[in-house]
């Protein structure tokens, strides 16, 4: 059975509580196993989910790692079917403790609608500790790709469409709820490692709390439009099929209703790349180019100046909130994540960048608001 046939069969599958055509299994796969030990469990899972594969010999399945991403383990499973057709899917295993920073219910709810609107990989199934999605035949963007004018225009155009997707349920913006939840967790940690604990104790949570309140109040005056936002538009979350010129947004783990300028400001912060070089933040001209294609993808030259200015202010104020969000996220990860990465250092990096940018961004917003 070819790929299209499998997906079509699922479209008409009975409602199973996960949504039409989305299969489910209670099985879970232990992420601490090595790939050779994990593979038979993954095959067992696939056979449980896809009855059409249940009688195939295990030798027809190949399991490989696509990415040991920061938060999840992503596997590619290729199945050599009896017809000679090779079908590929991805199996995403949630990383341990990721529930401290990711709301899986919210992610799953959104993904159904985003996938139906043509965004990301197609959602095929969920299981005990992860989900199965279609395999995207494309390459991941690099930080350098992300600022190439042709791709900037395409990202902006796709983001315009993404922000128009309606996800049923509450439309309350989540930014401040999420940040204050992170703040509560981040400000009550205790580290076994003495060095980490010492660094942690240098952080003034009173100062951070004051910063949050000030920024929340100011951004509230901007009346930024609410959209369903991706909230994590870094280069690793874009994939491009060069031959077809097709760009994919992936990874909706942090998606929520949010302020338009936050999603864009957060994206611009990601121009810094994996080295976190914030001198790469886009210039005003580069930002305006993005905004034109975001606001009016079909007539970018006709965007009124006042709309460009409003979005510029909105983006560069919410950009500050993105630093605070990821700084606090870093602190929680420093305690909870089993991944060997200096998340504590990441906190300082993002918080220091927030402090460096704060004055200029806030005075820009204040003079805009007072019309001076
Ligand atoms: N459906 C897919 N098909 C093919 N490759 C994929 C697919 N989804 C993700 N990838 C690849 O795996 C990489 C990691 O994916 P993703 O960002 O979803 O994982 P993650 O664990 O959330 O990573 P991180 O925490 O680093 O963002 C992507 O950059 C992309 O290269």
TrEMBL record:
GO biological process: phosphatidylethanolamine biosynthetic process
EC id: 2.7.1.82
Coiled-coil intervals: none
One cellular component (GO) term of this entry: cytoplasm
InterPro entries the UniProt entry points to: Kinase-like_dom_sf
Pathway assignment: Phospholipid metabolism; phosphatidylethanolamine biosynthesis; phosphatidylethanolamine from ethanolamine: step 1/3
Single annotated GO MF: ethanolamine kinase activity
Family note: Belongs to the choline/ethanolamine kinase family.
Record protein name field: ethanolamine kinase
